[in-house]
Design goal:
Blueprint (H helix, E strand, L loop, with lengths): L2 E6 L2 E6 L10 H15 L6 E6 L4 H7 L11 H13 L3 H14 L4 H15 L3 H15 L15
Parallel strand pairs: 2-3
Antiparallel strand pairs: 1-2
């Protein structure tokens, strides 16, 4: 079953249980939810319905690629600041384009999502940030492979 239902007095909680599909809605799940909503609509005791998804443990989220890292709670702020520092080293137009591509394309079919990504990338091509990045890449490529064990072009805070 893709959903479970619990009722506590006047509140019904409908929980989506599709961990392998990241709790995404498909037609069978939607049909099951609509049937359950029809059922509770006929119950005069029900005053509220809560729709939720089963939580996914952090380590499982990392395995599925939902998050890029998992850290202990006491290291979270430092890890977030490190990631923010890595992000802001990139051209603001590139960061904004990535965010636009993700937010606009996340719920689209794959071909439409790729088209959104391509349009967002194309909008960055004439910017100074892309020219500067390409220049740096070409300069680093011209110097040959690194010998210090770091990845070509890698920078650390």
């Amino acid at each position: 079953m893709t959903i479970h239902t619990e009722q506590d007095d006047h509140v019904v909680t409908i929980t989506i249980d599709r961990e392998r599909k990241l709790n995404a809605l498909d037609y069978p799940t939607i049909d099951a939810m609509l049937a359950e909503l029809d059922r509770v609509d006929c119950d005069d005791r029900v005053r509220a319905v809560v729709l939720t998804g089963d939580p996914i443990p952090a380590t499982r989220a990392a395995e599925m690629g939902l998050v890029n890292t998992v850290v202990p709670a006491d290291e979270l702020l430092d890890a977030a600041r490190y990631l923010a520092a890595r992000i802001i080293r990139h051209a603001p137009t590139a960061v904004a384009a990535c965010l636009r591509a993700v937010t606009r394309g996340v719920n689209l079919p794959i071909d439409e999502g790729i088209a959104v990504e391509a349009a967002c990338f194309a909008a960055t091509v004439p910017t100074d940030g892309v020219r500067t990045g390409l220049r740096r890449f070409l300069d680093l490529s011209a110097t040959g492979p690194r010998t210090d064990g770091r990845r070509q072009g890698a920078r650390h805070p």
